[in-house]
Amino acid sequence: MRLRILWLARTLPFPAVSGDRTYVTGYLKALAPLADITYMGIGNSDAQALADTALPLIRWKPVDCPLQPAPLSLMRSRPYVSARHSPRALVNAVRGELATRHYDWLVLDQYALGWVLEDLGAAVRAAGSHVLYFSHNHEAALAADTTRDFAGSGAKRLLLARNARLIAAMERNLVRRADLVSAISEDDAHALSALSAARRPIVLVPGIDLAAPKAPRSQKIASRRLVVVGSFHWVPKQINLTRFLADADAVARARHAAVDIIGEVPDGLRRTLSTQYPWVRFLGFVADLDATLAHYPMALNFEQTGGGFKLKNLTYIAAGVPIAALETSLTGVPQALAETMLVRRTAGELMAAALDALQTPQDLAQRAGRALDLVRQIYSWDRGAHLLLDHMRETHRATGRQATSPAPLLARSG
The pTM is what? Predict the structure, then answer.
């Protein structure tokens, strides 16, 4: 039974420069040979070119249109990100796709796609498609944490609190109305299952992409600088970054620490933090992340706000970089894997432990090797893809439907 799937998302997931895009593209790559997938989201010709090159088996249908204006999005009775990513052109394009081509499944990628059930509920019912809510976090908890930890203006805090209520409502509606729900970790699955007694989410852990075996890290390290990888346009990521740098500053200055931040940081925030913390360098986007990471002896993971699985842990491990992490950044990480990392409760303790660990490169190399062996056993895009398709097919059998997809094509762009 080869399923025909319409994957609906905010944008095309290229370039894959953030954890959510890494998660999506990992599963799309594993699913593409096994199902007939059409992907729709906001995107331009450049994003489509990247998508066609990276995943040619998928039928990419970007909608080239602007986002909803920010002021208008703030006034809508739905979460801000959902409002921004539901311009009329995209809504109409999805409605047209549902009317002209039958799909066995609609995948609503991330909570912001809750607008599909609100704006196109009748079209979805008429299409007769099953619905999968492909979640990335327990969004209500994440939004509540962000509001609690935000240290900016009172007016923005009020907006965050209102948005958190709207997010919780949209997430609850998605979990209750979808035929299947997926979660990125067992913790998230447990939290989401409380929103609907009808079903427990499928746990789709991330996978890991491994290149050829790497030389031991002790032979490749040319720098004693610590590294952090991330995209910091999202408010929770900015909270984590600013709080860690402030809390680690005293130890970093006393111990002459050096930390490089790889990834996109808003210009204003980058200028402020560069002035406040001269021991930090902001390198921005790098074209070959694995090659760049090969020069670092250790990575830091200091996320506190947000919960959810941190895909950057797998990025570091795949590149052979040992990890020093705050306890709060280990959501969804098995105990055996956590034991390969240096784990501390506070930013100051973490910075001190990481700097001390640089004195024992052989121990770091052993930690990285054990971590790589473990993730090979635990994290697989292919296993997750087969698990998801098994649940989709079982849902079809339970409802007496047959899959409608034709034989696969060699390419599905355009």
Answer: 0.86
